[in-house]
Amino acid sequence: MKRFSTIVATLLALVLSVSALSARELNLIPEPSYVDLEAEGDYVVTEKTRITVVDEMWHPAQLFAEEMMEYFGSEKPLRTVKRGDKGIKVRTDIFVPKEGYEMTVTEDSILIIGGSEVGVYYGLQTLRQLIITNDGRVPCGFIADEPNFEYRGAHLDVSRHFFSVEDVKRYIDILAAHKLNRLHWHLTDDQGWRIEIKAYPELTEKGSMRKETLIGHGLEPKWWDGKPYGGYYTQDEIREVVAYAADRYITIIPEIEMPGHSQAALHALPWLGCEEQEVGVWTMWGVTPEVLCAGKQTTYDFLETVLSEVVELFPSELIHIGGDECPKDRWKECEHCQAMIKAQGLANEEELQGYLVARIEQFLISKGKRMIGWDEILDGGVTETATVMSWRGINGGIYAAERGNDVVMTPMNLCYFNFYQTKSREGEGLQIGGYIPFDMVYNWDPYQKMSDEAKAHIIGVQCNMWSEYLKDMETVEVMLLPRLAAMSEVQWATDRRNNDTIRRKMEVMRKFYEACGWHYAPYYFEGRD
Ligand code: ACM
Ligand code: ZN
């Protein structure tokens, strides 16, 4: 009996110490750089907690206070005050990395010191996760944190399916909570032109509407829904979304596709094509042979006029010009394209694309911007100053980085979040194909096969959301979450990932998603991948 009670006591002690230990784990996503939880006790945040804030930090503090309203179920945000010893205190210090923060939690206060306003914001996002997932009890201790990559992006295709201003804001909210700082907004493509351009009203009047949309994969027999489909953003709406993102420290990089993926523009303005014939806004998915003519001066005038309006709307230094998947069939038959090849001393149509891209890059530089494009911009001989987005695997990115170009890694087999999340595909609805489960993203090494010189040019990592099969924001969210959590660990915490703790952390993150009212895929949590 004695022996039995000793065993019970030992087991009890073990259980208590394990539960005490698990109560002292933060379970944050993405994982912070340094955590010290030696101290005892908690600080309990309630709706009465005040935030003491100097004037310059009012914006992130206010945003946090508003974000917490739903959690507290209150009508008013947490109060921000100028002076006080207790509660949450935020300020900056030059000794903290710019996007980083330090958080010190005692039983009396929570002090967040950011390297800048954005560092304070990320500290407050960490605090938000801790409050929501621990019922307001923030464990005493110390966190020091900073991101691994400067560029932490997600992309959203609004051409194949259109998403309202409110939808895009919701998407931005989700990115911000995962500490992403770039939204790559894919605004134009064959199936719809989605941004108002004052100089060419036809682009949205005609180019934003397609006759109908393909049902299913459109293999055999081809089948369309017969319903006109469209939508676009006015310039005022674009400004509204850009400002909303900037408020959350997210830069929006607009993408205007050229010279391929431009059939919607060709429908609106047929003189942009080699043959100048009516083509219609495309109602297929994939790659169309209808592309912009690269031989006519009028095409360059058009692109420069469009970009002149775009650069005024988007403060981003990087402007995306697409450049991917441009078949050269029309150019081979076009007298203008052939004349341009000859006049410029180019070897072939690939080099003609290189010529167009280089010319557009020079135009963007003249506007104080820098060009980014998909990795096909390497094919025609890329300049040293372009930034390359590696999507056809990693080799284009490695090649460009070794040459000294800046690179964003977004290989299709790991970063296309429109791909299926489970092997069986059960319950996933119809998606484009592929297979990218959570763990595959989480365990990805974006520096794979790279020299140290090349690594220095990898500015970041991005996931992409192509919307052929994503008809509404709920579906987008289910494709985004929880994989974005894995992506944010790669982007923010590459060297701190741990397969022993990620599942437990994700159970906690799930609670956060529920509290925020975001849709997420259940498969990972069901152990189904
Ligand atoms: C792409 O997926 N065509 C960049
Ligand atoms: Zn042509």
Structural class: alpha/beta
CATH hierarchy, class of the largest domain: Alpha Beta
Shape: globular
By CATH, the superfamily of the largest domain comes out as Glycosidases
CATH architecture of the largest domain: Alpha-Beta Barrel
Give the proportion of residues in helices: 25-40%
Number of domains: 2
| Main sheet: strands, sense, barrel | 8 strands, parallel, barrel
Q: What's the helix count?
A: 19
Total strand count, please?
21
Instruction: Name the strands of the widest sheet in spatial order.
Output: 10-11-16-17-18-19-20-21
Bound molecules: acetamide, zinc ion
Strand content: 15-25%
Distance between the ends:
47 Å
As a whole number of angstroms, the C-alpha radius of gyration is 25 Å
CATH topology of the largest domain: TIM Barrel
Runs with pLDDT <50, length 5+? 1-22
Q: What's the overall average pLDDT, rounded?
A: 94
